[in-house]
Amino acid sequence: MADDDGEVVATCQLTFTPGLSRNGTRRMTIEAVRVRTDRRGDGLGRTFMVFALDRGRERGCRVAQLTTDKRRGDAHRFYERLGFEASHEGMKLAL
Hints:
The chain has one domain: Aminopeptidase, CATH 3.40.630.30. The protein contains 3 helices and 4 strands; from the N terminus they run ββαβαβα.
């Protein structure tokens, strides 16, 4: 969570998972990234994501993966500018 004088301006969920692939590489999954609408475009999102990626490195993760809605073109361009590449197709099942 990122806050500005106690007011929440950005959130995300980080999950750290040990794995069997890539020689047992630990990975970080980034989900539910949200930056408050009136704070978009001022660099907060980049700062927030750099913070998240640093947490993954500190925990020994070798891969960061994220989920994003297919309809969010602006978000996709943002993640690509950070170096992320589209590599997998995700699936969801409502329970």
